[in-house]
Design a protein that fits this description.
The complex is a heterodimer.
Chain A (H helix, E strand, L loop, with lengths): L3 E4 L2 E4 L5 E7 L5 E7 L6 E6 L6 E2 L6 E5 L5 E5 L8 E8 L7 E2 L3 E5 L1
Parallel strand pairs in A: 2-11
Antiparallel strand pairs in A: 1-3, 3-8, 4-5, 4-9, 5-6, 7-8, 9-10, 9-11
Chain B lengths: L3 E4 L2 E5 L4 E7 L6 E7 L6 E7 L4 E4 L2 E6 L4 E6 L8 E7 L8 E2 L3 E6 L1
Parallel strand pairs in B: 2-11
Antiparallel strand pairs in B: 1-3, 3-8, 4-5, 4-9, 6-7, 7-8, 9-10, 9-11
The chains are: A mainly beta, B mainly beta.
Chain lengths: 112, 112
């Protein structure tokens, strides 16, 4: 099992550009999450999907959109990137909401 | 919603000493309490967890205790080693919650 995979690993964008971060899990998990982690800071929840077909806002959803494409895949889109979105983005999944979260390796995004 | 407070934010100990990190939560319906370790540049990974029907759980040098009445849980690391140096996150979630709530993290430094 690959677990949780994320692409790309690194990305540099210019202000105003758009991009989509991809996340996939092969553990048949129901719930998936997107977090951002700024240097020296904790994990802030951007969006989550408690089950296939549903998505909900987390703490910091502004400037982002998500799509739960199917049970395996959960993508995060930045429509118009801003320097404040420079961060490391982690995708995670778990079988149920009250269960261990498994994290992907992260995407390091820099917006110039 | 759930609120999780974690203390201390930084902790420095000598190799061989014990380390204790504490978290409090607000939602009495929360019933799952994991602890994650994040090494520098890596993803968070589960090190131990506890459910609300258990008061204490131990795994070699790591233990977690839960006090449901007081709504707090703690991570105990004995005989610390330099490789224990990392950021530790606590979290709380319940079956009826859409997501886990994470603490802000504790940076543990173990000095040789």
């Amino acid at each position: 099992n690959a677990g949780v995979t994320q692409t790309p690993k690194f990305q540099v964008l210019k202000t105003g550009q758009s991009m989509t971060l991809q996340c996939a899990q092969d553990m048949n998990h129901n719930s998936m999450y997107w977090y951002r982690q700024d240097p020296g800071m904790g994990l802030r929840l951007i969006y989550y999907s408690a089950s296939e077909g549903t998505t909900d806002k987390g703490e910091v959803p502004n400037g982002y959109n998500v799509s739960r494409l199917n049970k395996r895949e959960f993508s995060l889109r930045l429509e118009s990137a801003a320097p404040s979105q420079t961060s490391v983005y982690f995708c995670a999944s778990n079988l149920d909401r009250a269960d261990t979260q498994y994290f992907g390796p992260g995407t390091r995004l820099t917006v110039l | 919603g759930e609120n999780v407070e974690q203390h201390p934010s930084t902790l420095s100990v000598q190799e061989g000493d014990s380390a204790v990190i504490k978290c409090t939560y607000s939602d009495s319906a929360s019933n799952y309490f994991p602890w994650y370790k994040q090494e520098l540049g890596k993803r968070p990974q589960l090190i131990i967890d506890i459910r609300s029907n258990v008061g204490e759980k131990k795994d070699q040098r790591i233990a977690v205790t839960l006090n449901k009445t007081a709504k707090h849980f703690s991570l105990h690391i004995t005989e610390t080693q330099p490789e224990d140096s990392a950021v530790y996150f606590c979290a709380a979630s319940g079956a009826n919650a859409g997501k886990s709530t994470f603490g802000d993290g504790t940076t543990l430094t173990v000095k040789p």
